[in-house]
Amino acid sequence: MTVADNDADNDKTIQNGKTKAGAAVKAALAANIGVALAKFAAAAFTGSSSMFSESVHSVADCANEIVLMIGDKTSDHKSDGDHPFGLHRIKYLASFIVATLLFFVGGVFAVSQAASKLTGLIDGSIPREAESFELVAALVVVGVSACLEGYGLHTSIHEARERMTRVKVESDSLVKFWRRTKSAELASVMMEDTLALIGLAFAGLGIGLSIATGDELYDAIGGLMVGLVLVCGSAALAFKSGSLLIGEDIDPRTREMLVEAVEGTQGVNRLINMQAIHMDEDAVLLCLKVETDKFDRDYDVQTVDKIETSIRTALPWYEWEIYVEPDIWRAQH
Asked: What is the pLDDT of residues 45-57, one digit of tens each?
């Protein structure tokens, strides 16, 4: 026997405790629009390969945030019936599109442009003498961009810490949080801001060496490294968003709390099996097999209702889709 309960009061509690994703995304978009304009202006004025690669990087970042915001907005719409578990996974699809198309294409384009300039500098078709004054202006833009990107990363980290606190998971390193988070938006923005700072470091180093040596070659190498950073980052983000799209398990601490809630429910003898999957960071599909004190229909229905109440009370920050099947424990379980 399978029972699913969508209690209105519980849904209201969940919605009140649900974090609306987007603070980090909006902050990143606002910063990146200004950064992209400044970089394009600097690239046009100086002809810097590093600055051009960084301009492409910022355009990819802006497109990233726009796609993520569209995905977040669309996922809130009610399904027309073709998607019985809702449209939650649109967020994960948006993140995957960002990783595989926007980031990768932007990275490949930046690499190709930098490689073309690098080839011209080596074969002598492009003069290698650097215009130091113009490159100093580009270096200033790099510094300002680093400050803005650093602010965006700070916002992402702050939101990450808040989410760990909200869902009662162990505070961990940011790398481990990135690997474990179920938020496609936050994973994308954290990766984006980190890549931006790494790219700016390469761009700044390339421009600085060109100023110091008077040789454009270092600026072209810096631009090449920025593109490669973007390509490598897209691969990592594609792996993460692809994993979320396929379906990831709940956090180990969340699993412990679920087991405690189920096994502590009156009428439950044993939790036989439990399978859970995130539909998005705030929605979980949960399937349970339990052994009850008495195996009769009326008693089992009451126990199932108690189990669902226990779970929603213990973990109110998630939107639950719960299916419980009373069963008899066997050795093969």
From this structure: 877 877 887 787 7
Rounded CA gap, 220 and 176, in Å? 34
In whole numbers, what is the pLDDT of the chain averaged over residues?
81
Domains of the chain, with CATH numbers?
A: 20-246 (1.20.1510), 252-326 (3.30.70.1350)
What is the rounded CA–CA span in Å between residue 245 and residue 205?
Answer: 37
Nearest to 241 by CA among 108, 109, 104: 104
28: its two tokens: 């990143």
Cβ-based neighbours of 112, under 8 Å, separated by 6 or more: 227
Lowest mean pLDDT among 105-109, 192-196, 297-301, 324-328: 297-301
The answer to whether residues 148 and 34 touch, using CB atoms and an 8 Å cutoff, is yes
- Alpha helices in 84-173, H assignment, sequence order: 90-97, 104-123, 132-166
Burial 89-120 (b: 16+ CB within 10 A, else e): bbbbbbbbbbbbebbbbbbbbbbebbeebbee
Measure the CA–CA gap between 2 and 321, rounded to whole angstroms: 12
